[in-house]
């Protein structure tokens, strides 16, 4: 059975967690737009002040940073800084043909840590909580990358 196939339950577990992370990251863009529309601000580009159907009464204040919008942008930036490492380390880890239960714990544990990180960030929890959740995900990535490296060197 090919390792990078949905017939491989380890790969299927990776695909599930990776797809959830992709959907979460894409959802952040939509959440940013929704929040910008709710607050009628947090825009970034001067051309956003042109009169349009969606912005019938432009105001220069719309270009000022809005904390409610910027918080979501920071969450998305954090995803963009972290998810590519998960995708790469996870795919390499699948190639080590690990035990299914361990792989599921790692893949789903990473996804849960990122979803909890989002919940902590969006609700304004203290840095220690966010840092703890980030650390869990980061250690999972490190473990998978080290295991891939060990297998590649053997």
Walk me through this protein's architecture.
This protein has 154 residues and is mainly α. It has one domain (9-153): Up-down Bundle (Four Helix Bundle (Hemerythrin (Met), subunit A)). The chain has helices spanning 9-39, 67-94, 100-122, 127-153.
Which characteristics define this entry?
Four Helix Bundle (Hemerythrin (Met), subunit A); mainly alpha; about 150 residues; 4 helices; single chain
Detail the topology: elements first, then pairings:
Layout: H1 9-39, H2 67-94, H3 100-122, H4 127-153
Helix pairs in contact: 1-2, 1-3, 2-3, 2-4, 3-4
Quick one: CATH class? Answer: Mainly Alpha
Mean pLDDT: 95
- Runs in which pLDDT lies below 50 for 5 or more consecutive residues are none
Q: Assembly state here?
A: single chain
CATH topology name: Four Helix Bundle (Hemerythrin (Met), subunit A)
N-to-C order of helices and strands: HHHH
**Total domain units:** 1
> What is the structural class?
mainly alpha
CATH architecture: Up-down Bundle
- How many helical stretches? 4
CATH superfamily: Membrane associated eicosanoid/glutathione metabolism-like domain
User: Could you describe the largest sheet, including whether it forms a barrel?
Assistant: none
Amount of helix? over 70%
Radius of gyration (Å): 19 Å
What would the principal axes of the Cα set say about the shape? elongated
Distance between the termini: 21 Å
Strand content: under 5%
Number of strands: 0
């Amino acid at each position: 059975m090919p390792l990078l196939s949905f017939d491989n339950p380890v790969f299927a577990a990776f695909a599930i967690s990776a797809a959830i992370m992709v959907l979460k990251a894409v959802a952040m863009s939509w959440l940013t737009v929704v929040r910008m529309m709710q607050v009628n601000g947090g825009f970034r580009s001067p051309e956003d002040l042109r009169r349009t159907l969606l912005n019938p009464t432009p105001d220069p204040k719309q270009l000022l940073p809005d904390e409610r919008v910027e918080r979501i942008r920071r969450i998305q930036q954090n995803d963009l800084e972290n998810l590519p490492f998960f995708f790469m380390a996870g795919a390499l880890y699948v190639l080590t043909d690990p035990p299914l239960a361990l792989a599921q714990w790692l893949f789903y544990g990473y996804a849960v840590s990122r979803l909890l990180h989002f919940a902590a960030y969006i609700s304004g929890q203290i840095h220690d909580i966010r840092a703890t959740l980030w650390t869990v995900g980061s250690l999972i990535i490190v473990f998978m990358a080290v295991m891939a490296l060990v297998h590649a060197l053997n």
